[in-house]
# Entry
Amino acid sequence: MAEPQPSFDAAKYKNAQREQWNKDGAAWRRWNPTLDRWYGEVTRQMLDLARIQPGQRILDIAAGAGEPAVSAAERVGPGGYVLATDISEGIVELALQVARERGFRQIETRAMDGENLDLPDASFDAVLCRLGLMYMPRPVTALREWRRALKPGGRVAIVVFSTPDHNEWGAVPASIIRRRAQLPPPVAGQPGPFSLGGPGVLEDMFRQAGFADPEVRAVPVPHGAACAADYVQVAREAFGGFNAMMADLSPQERESVWSEVEGSMRSFESPGGFEVPGECLVGAATK
Ligand SMILES: C[S@@+](CC[C@H](N)C(=O)[O-])C[C@H]1O[C@@H](n2cnc3c(N)ncnc32)[C@H](O)[C@@H]1O
# Structure
């Protein structure tokens, strides 16, 4: 992927990310059981590709409210160490609460920009990032930083969404919101949920950042719920990006947009419940 054009204000974008996730972190945490159901399989595959062993030191970037840090802590065991980092100091505080409630003393948390790690060289066995790299304005710069923090032979393993046509859970609401809020189409090369999902993009980025043996696989992540209304409730509360796109609409207009989204989501209902397609890419490489 090309790094963003000079006109793109990366600092402003990062600040908006920080503020959004400081605000929406509690909802992301509250919906953790649902998110675990949707993203559990892809998380297991990422941890497998990271080849995590008991006793290792793991760095989780853009850790949100604690995943995959908590799952990694289970794998490294009490003799290992997991550092969960995120640009949002509010959400990473929630990650610490989750870790302590689950009894994991081997997890620490720190607020940190994933493109600029305040960490020594060659100090981790694996770097993980679930659903975070695509929100970084300079993903290759970020990957170079992660590589710097890895020990020789260390592994990077990440999850990003693939392309909009395979992710109707997000692409359908986003296109409705975009039309109703009269927003311009997404610009190629700028960060966003589907910005790293194209064919060959992750492999190229791993190579540009100096990693060896990149491997990337597509994994279905269907988003299931009891009905379309239940799905829309999760989307409204946990996926803050949708609300951010509607920042200039009145409360009444927003309600009307969500009604339209729910109407279109009903096409994914069946007698068995509700399921809208999604797909992630799990990618890994070696330092
Ligand atoms: C969709 S959430 C994913 C959280 C968690 N990894 C998960 O999968 O549940 C995206 C996260 O990326 C974080 N983020 C965005 N830009 C970042 C950056 N430049 N550095 C570190 N974290 C960032 C946000 O604060 C947010 O917590």
User: Anything to note?
Assistant: The first helix runs from residue 10 to 30.
